[in-house]
Backbone:
């Protein structure tokens, strides 16, 4: 006999959705506020990259806040209680480091270049550092993962690969037909970074990791 | 795949975290299995079977029938 399905914690789900909404709103408002300042000085791809970088940064800050303030963390993050949060601390801390490093580097890169306000050397250094941090986190995080998280990581990579293929091939085809301009370098990085984020959300959602514990 | 993991866990009076600790996996894995979002590996299914003292087919319900 199968047990009756447990009810999801709707209050927590609503809190998490509200938190996500606030993060998205802050990101959109921040990019909008910056647009008049940078209009005409950076390419359209850079605007997209700025938005993706902000989303990474805000996610990192939100998870970091949850780690620093466990009460907030239990309410906002996908953990059952403080004990669960403590057990997930090592993995979540690495996620925060990755998101903040990558998000910051993407934003600096978006604001650099011939007409940008950020020195190229600073943006390049931040990107190199972010890539090194991502590689180091991936290597050190893998042994901490159990079979579910390893599966989710691989599914996220597969989803990212599919999204990138569809977007880049469609864009290249339209550009070949003269229907759109060529993809600018920062636009390509925005597609890659954005697809990684989207792929992770898709893989995590399929395994129920976007919903609170039952 | 449908399963009776939650029923078996609750019968023992364990939380998801407690069962996760006993099986050496994360609490998220237990939650994903209980909500039919994830089918565990064979080694993990065998560990569940030994822990609860019931055969794997009594935990995981597969509707498949071989063709006659």
Residues:
């Amino acid at each position: 006999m199968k047990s009756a399905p447990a009810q999801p914690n709707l209050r927590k789900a609503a809190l998490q959705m509200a938190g996500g909404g606030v993060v998205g709103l802050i990101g959109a408002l921040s990019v909008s506020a910056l647009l008049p300042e940078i209009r005409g000085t950076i390419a359209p791809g850079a605007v997209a990259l700025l938005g993706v970088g902000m989303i990474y940064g805000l996610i990192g800050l939100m998870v970091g806040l949850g780690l620093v303030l466990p009460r907030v963390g239990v309410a906002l993050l996908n953990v059952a209680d403080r004990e669960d949060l403590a057990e997930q601390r090592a993995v979540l801390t690495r996620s925060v480091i990755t998101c903040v490093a990558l998000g910051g580097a993407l934003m600096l890169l978006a604001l650099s270049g011939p007409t940008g306000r950020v020195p190229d050397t600073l943006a390049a250094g931040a990107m190199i550092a972010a890539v090194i941090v991502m590689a180091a986190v991936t290597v050190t995080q893998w042994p901490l993962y159990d079979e579910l998280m390893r599966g989710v990581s691989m599914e996220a990579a597969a989803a990212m690969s599919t999204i990138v293929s569809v977007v880049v091939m469609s864009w290249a085809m339209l550009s070949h037909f003269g229907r759109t301009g060529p993809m600018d370098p920062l636009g390509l990085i925005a597609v890659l970074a954005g697809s990684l984020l989207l792929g992770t959300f898709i893989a995590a959602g399929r395994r129920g990791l976007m919903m609170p514990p039952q | 795949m449908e399963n009776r993991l939650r029923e078996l866990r609750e019968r023992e009076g364990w939380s998801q975290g407690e069962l996760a600790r006993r099986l050496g996996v994360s609490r998220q894995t237990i939650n994903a299995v209980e909500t039919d979002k994830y089918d565990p590996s064979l080694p993990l299914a065998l560990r569940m079977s030994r822990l609860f003292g019931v055969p794997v087919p009594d935990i995981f319900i597969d509707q498949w029938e071989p063709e006659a």
